[in-house]
Amino acid sequence: MTLDTATPAAEPLAARIPAGFVIGAATAAPQIEGAAVVGRRTPSIWDRFAAEPGRILDGSTPAVTADHFHRRQEDVALLRGLGADAYRFSFSWTRVQPAGRGALDPEGAGFYDRLLDELLEVGVRPFATISHWDLPEGYERGWLDRETALRLGELAGLLGERYGDRVDSWITINEPATVTLNGYALGIHAPGDSLLFDALPTVHHQLLGHGMAVQALRAAGVQGAIGITNTHSPVSPASDAPEDQAMAALFDLVHNRVYADPVLLGHYPEVPGFLGDALAAFDAVPAEDLAQIHQPLDFYGLNYYMPTLIAAGSGSGESPDGESAAMSALPFRLLDFEGAPKTGFGWPIAPDGFGRALTEMRDRYGDTLPPVFITENGASFPDTIGDDGRVHDDERIAFLHDHLSAALAAVEPGGVAEGIDLRGFFVWSLIDNWEWAAGFTQRFGLVHVDFETGRRTPKASYEWLRAVLAARA
Ligand code: BGC
Q: Strand, coil or helix: what is 57?
């Protein structure tokens, strides 16, 4: 590839990547697979949500997306061409278990047999997420229902029995924080509930589901490592004013701590008095539930995209993932990072926030924190194919360079998060995909996808990452 002078060189970064550090790319089934009505697959909550008018920005649905279901081999070849060490994907719940309970569907499950075999054949380690946001449509109340936790446990056991000899690393559940906030509190994501603080039972049920899934995987005797993934955002108050500080602490609590504390420490965080009864339900959680949630883990998956700036006062209706009328009923609002460079989504580009997120993990969880993988980091930009047939996504190259550098620097001797055993980094995403409520309006891929034809075109960032991977010692 021809590097222009602004493109960060591959070699200096490659030289800083420790031996054995895993670099890969990530995807999720609802965002790339399509094939919504193939075989016995049944609709998921995202199929139903996308069919409701006004839910998805461009009116699109996950019916076809990047058609990975039919282009699996091409996508495995892209991973191989990249020189990726690992690939993180998710199972489509309603493809492997169309009834939402009971035995796996042989045809649906066969798709993942082939994917796993092909990954292993080309030396790419499979990281499998069991639940990346797509519940069976038939789970009426979704994560509001405790029963859903049992269902996740059951599914994990079945997947563990079938694929336990081939999956390198298991992730029980992806970003419970986003599911609760966007799916149940703000109504931006499926299932589309705007329950604000009444969404809190979904925190507990997802964590319980995680704990049950860990136990079921272990009971199935899986060979791979087991962990969970959450998204972490370092939170700052807009000012020193006590109201802003209190609201920043509240956001940190509901975005970061209510998930990581029970998983890693075995208890919910202490709730500040000013919140009154809003989070009182956590005090009433039985000890047996906390024991279920607090399972020993082989790794913790951390997704980092951006920091958050919080001020007291009611919200504007804007959230990073879309509009939500419910936002204006909250006692805080998310402020813009004025002057900061932004991604296509308008998210602030802040690699130093990565160091802060990792430092908080070390300071809060100390020796209870297992090895960490960055299971997602990346950015959307309005990529187009140029007249030369290439996608010059220099902003993504700079983003990935600066973020991977920041993560590595944070854990190096003398780094702000020294002591964390950081084992790997996954780029979000391998290919352009269906970006949930934003439909096809945001492109995160290392590989461009023409959503009309399914045609894949590796971007300059793909070539750059390939050069970094190849230049490692
Ligand atoms: C999710 C992905 C999503 C990405 C970018 C993460 O929250 O796990 O599914 O596409 O962020 O929004």
A: coil
How would you class 262 by CB atoms within 10 Å of its CB: exposed for 0-12, middle for 13-18, buried for 19 or more? buried
Q: Which fold has domain 10-470?
A: TIM Barrel (3.20.20)
Q: Which protein residues are within 6 Å of ligand 1, measured from CB?
A: 28, 31, 174-175, 178, 231, 303, 376, 428, 435, 444
Dump pLDDT digits (tens) for 84-104: 999 999 999 999 999 999 999
pLDDT band at 466 (very low <50, low <70, confident <90, very high): very high
| 263-303 pLDDT, tens digit each | 999 999 988 777 777 778 888 899 999 999 999 999 999 99
Clarify whether 52 is annotated catalytic. no
Q: Is 35 helix (H, G, I), strand (E, B) or coil?
A: coil
Using only C-alpha atoms, the chain has a radius of gyration, in whole angstroms, of: 21
Task: Return the best residue to mutate from 127, 132, 178 for the ligand 1 pocket (most ligand atoms within 8 A of CB).
Answer: 178
For the chain, helix, strand, coil in percent to 5 are 40, 15, 45
